[in-house]
Design a protein that fits this description.
12 helices; about 250 residues; about 0% strand; globular
Length: about 250
């Protein structure tokens, strides 16, 4: 029943997006088609491979395989690539949930593989369901009286972190959702710190007295997208950061 429910939910969400949002995806990620395809493919593989194995085995004490780890690493790398230019919602609050997932999921997945922990593997896989939960929340907030007159960007900014925390809570791993919320908060502060230091390091005096290690740290984090969008616009040539937005949701 769980497999059938998830299959129907994913089919409905993917169909809806292919009909109404595929053109906007094509515009925003036209230079990252391979990355977007790998991101979607690896995520779907992990979700349905886990649930198929649960049906076959009759329990949820499932251990990750080496293929699960590789798939998770690819998903994480493509997630960082795609979120680097994400401008939906309020970027200061919308990007940290994606960034937290991209950093924490491979850590949890590798720990699950090394420690042979079915609970950690379940946490890693269930976190992927935030994609469908976010779209369900967006649909609910947008088409019901609850938040009818609320701007689309505000709805998106609310739905993304809420869906991420909810999907992690569904894994039934104690403290996982609280840990994720804290990670989001600290990543938001990290983005702020990198942006601040990046601006300061453009001043010759500040650059002269800053250690080489800190300079490389700031540059490396910025290249991975851990900075606020205004700062990324100044130091990169990504057209996706400059093009006007015309769609309501991602």
């Amino acid at each position: 029943i769980d497999l059938l429910q998830h299959t129907l939910l994913y089919v409905v969400i993917i169909f809806y997006h292919s009909q109404y949002h595929a053109p906007s995806y094509h515009v925003k990620f036209s230079k990252h088609k391979l990355g977007l395809s790998l991101h979607i493919g690896t995520g779907l593989f992990e979700v349905f491979e886990y649930r198929l194995r649960r049906v076959q085995l009759g329990h949820d004490r499932i251990l990750p395989s080496s293929l699960d780890v590789v798939s998770c690493l690819v998903w994480s790398a493509t997630s960082l690539q795609l979120v680097k230019t994400l401008r939906r919602g309020d970027p200061q609050t919308t990007r940290p949930p994606y960034q937290a997932g991209a950093i924490l999921r491979p850590v949890v997945c590798m720990l699950a593989y090394l420690l042979q922990s079915p609970n950690l593997h379940r946490l890693s896989v269930y976190a992927l369901d935030s994609f469908v939960y976010a779209r369900v929340f967006i649909f609910f907030f947008h088409y019901t009286p609850y938040m009818r007159d609320t701007p689309g960007n505000t709805i998106y900014a609310l739905a993304i972190p809420l869906a991420a925390a909810f999907s992690i809570h569904e894994s039934r791993v104690p403290g996982a959702s609280v840990g994720f919320v804290l990670a989001m908060a600290y990543i938001a502060k990290l983005n702020e710190w990198v942006s601040q230091r990046s601006r300061q390091l453009r001043e010759p005096d500040e650059q002269a007295k800053t250690s080489t290690v800190e300079k490389h740290l700031v540059t490396g984090l910025r290249r991975l997208g851990f900075a606020e969008l205004q700062e990324l616009r100044k130091v990169t040539n990504h057209q996706a950061l400059k093009k006007p937005l015309t769609d309501d949701y991602v």
